[in-house]
Design a protein that fits this description.
The structure holds two protein chains of two kinds.
Chain A lengths: L1 H13 L1 H5 L3 H13 L8 H9 L6 E4 L2 E4 L12
Chain B lengths: L1 H12 L5 H47 L2 E19 L6 E19 L4 E12 L11 H7 L6 E14 L4 E8 L24 E2 L2 E9 L8 E9 L2 E2 L11 E2 L2 E2 L3 E2 L1 E10 L8 E15 L16 E17 L4 E16 L5 E16 L8 E9 L6 E2 L14 E12 L3 E12 L2 E3 L2 E3 L2 E14 L1
Parallel strand pairs in B: 6-19
Antiparallel strand pairs in B: 1-2, 1-24, 2-3, 3-4, 4-5, 5-7, 7-8, 8-13, 9-12, 10-11, 13-14, 14-15, 15-16, 16-17, 17-18, 18-20, 20-21, 21-24, 22-23
The chains are: A mainly alpha, B mainly beta.
Chain lengths: 81, 458
């Protein structure tokens, strides 16, 4: 019973992350994977997503000791980009 | 509660009679409590899960409704500009302008659907304690300049266009588009591309229709090819009566003068031993019988018209190399070949002009000193017949748009935290006299400008 409760609680706690940031988590994981060939630990995922997108375009951001380019878009600066 | 009270009364009056049941109660009570504990924990867990479920639902709903993105740019500048000018061989005049200015742009972008997006920008620029300036000769300059004319604190819409992306590689856009602030402006601050047209083709805001073909998906990995086609006609109409044609003297001006542009962009990252990225842009543009309102106002009403119309063809090339030698060195060369045929409305005069102009930008990222810092320089050389349609710039010195000129710009940009950036730079420009139909100047000038700029991007 206790194990089931823990599993359910963890499930409800962790599941919202990829849903609330649909696509962005995958983008961050892929960027780190491509740049540094490493996987992001689940416990720093949320913080990583925020930092990878709350930055200046072209700025370097350190995610789990890996430097990637800021993933923030360009706000339509280039037509049809 | 009531049963407990009755037990106390009973126990106090006849203890012997109830001794046996009491022992049963004493035995079963802890057992009942133990049995009830998991049930209480389950209730507690259910409550927490319900709460979590509510919070998750709220997050998902917020995410589903989160279709607006907010961003912006806030710039404050100091510029110390001096110019010495006059007819060659004669005494020179000198002006000095020490200016402070502020520019603000607020972007609101809407994801209408997954494929349809609306982009807007509300912006203003002003010199401090100075409102109501107007440096535009005609209404088309005001349109192309948007908020960049240092007119004051009244905001203008610099961007309002929607873009629909099809499932095949085509995007259609219509509205007021960011055709200004193109490459290599962004490299002055080590940023990504900030505008559509290369700055040495046009640095102005245009309204119109665009079609963008992205062939990158058909190319090998690391190569991209895009074609962007624009139709941006100029609308001439009576300033006070929208049912009337604009009239110059006695000649009625066409209400719609066509203007086209095609921008082809190729980029590759597959030259890794040499560069990080190589970009080559080619842009062709053309406009026909463009009416220069206000250039030459008739001296008397009903006099023969003498405002010229221009028909021009431009060929612009941009070669950009980023990450040369993989040491953060970037270089780009912009070349503009421009030919103009100018004719007065009475058809009396015309001339064909070809001009050449070059802009070299070299900059080095100094990440090993301070991450994000940039040091660089620009060189410019323009013919006497050079013309750049530049109306969206924040410098006082007309460095990028002066004919018959040679100049240098040295700059250094450093980040101050994650979103603030400072740039200091020095411009020097020498311009000779020039003369051709429609535009002329008999003076030569030497300009110097020292500036400091703080840029907040958010």
């Amino acid at each position: 019973m206790r194990s089931l409760t823990i599993v359910l609680a963890l499930g409800f706690t962790l599941l919202p992350l990829p849903q609330a940031h649909a696509g962005k988590v995958a983008n961050v994981k892929q960027a780190v994977k491509e740049k540094c060939s490493k996987d992001i630990p689940i416990d720093i995922l949320l913080d990583s997503v925020v930092r990878a997108y709350d930055c200046q375009p072209n700025q370097e951001v350190t995610i789990a000791s890996c430097k990637i380019k800021c993933l923030k878009g360009d706000s339509g600066n280039v037509v049809g980009h | 509660m009531s049963s407990d009270t009755s037990s106390e009364i009973v126990l106090g009056t006849e203890p012997a009679i109830f001794a046996r049941p009491l022992m049963k109660i004493a035995f079963f009570l802890p057992a009942l409590l133990l049995a009830a504990a998991p049930s209480a924990r389950a209730d507690d867990t259910t409550t927490k899960l319900d709460s979590l479920n509510d919070r998750v639902t709220e997050l998902e709903a917020a995410q589903a409704l989160h279709t607006v993105r907010f961003s912006g740019v806030f710039i404050n500048r100091f510029e110390d500009f001096t110019t010495t000018y006059g007819v060659p061989g004669e005494a020179k005049d000198k002006d000095r302008l020490t200016t402070f200015s502020t520019y603000l742009a607020l972007n609101l972008d809407f994801d209408i659907t997954e494929r349809l997006k609306l982009y807007t920008t509300l912006a203003m620029s002003k010199f401090w304690q100075n409102d109501g300036r107007n440096e535009y000769a005609g209404n088309w300059q005001a349109s192309e300049g948007g908020s960049f004319g240092y007119a004051g604190s009244t905001p203008r819409i610099d961007r309002a266009y929607m873009a629909y992306t099809f499932s095949f590689p085509l995007t259609l856009a219509v509205g007021r588009m960011p055709t200004n602030n193109g490459v290599p402006i962004n490299q002055l601050d080590g940023l990504v591309r900030e505008g559509t047209y290369p700055r040495f083709a046009y640095n102005a805001i245009f309204d119109g229709i665009a079609a963008i073909f992205d062939f990158s998906r058909y190319l090998p990995r690391g190569h991209s090819l895009k074609l962007r086609a624009f139709y941006t006609p100029n609308i001439n109409i009576d300033n006070a009566d929208r049912t009337r044609q604009l009239t110059d003297g006695t000649v009625k001006v066409d209400s719609n003068t066509p203007q086209y542009a095609i921008l082809a962009e190729y980029a590759t990252t597959r030259l890794s031993p040499i560069f990080d990225t190589l970009s080559f842009y080619y842009m062709f543009y053309q406009y026909s019988n463009f009416y220069n309102a206000g250039t030459n106002t008739p001296a008397t009403p009903d006099a023969a018209p003498n405002n010229p119309t221009d028909s021009a063809i431009g060929n612009m090339m941009y070669l950009g190399l980023e990450g040369i030698g993989h040491i953060g060195l970037n270089a780009s060369l912009s070349v503009l070949l421009y030919r103009d045929t100018s004719t007065t409305l009475d058809g009396c005069e015309s001339s064909t002009i070809l001009s050449k102009a070059y802009l070299l930008n070299v900059n080095q990222r100094l990440d090993f000193v301070l991450t994000g810092s940039v040091l660089g320089f620009e060189l410019i050389k323009t013919d006497p017949t050079f013309y750049l349609d530049e109306w969206t710039y924040l410098t006082v010195i007309p460095f990028y748009s002066s004919p018959a000129s040679r100049g240098v710009h040295v700059f250094a940009s450093v980040p101050l935290g994650e979103k603030l950036r400072a740039r200091v730079g020095w411009y020097r420009l020498h311009s000779d006299p020039y003369s051709y139909v429609g535009f002329s100047s008999s003076i030569e000038s030497d300009d110097n400008s020292l500036y400091l700029q703080l840029r907040l991007g958010f």
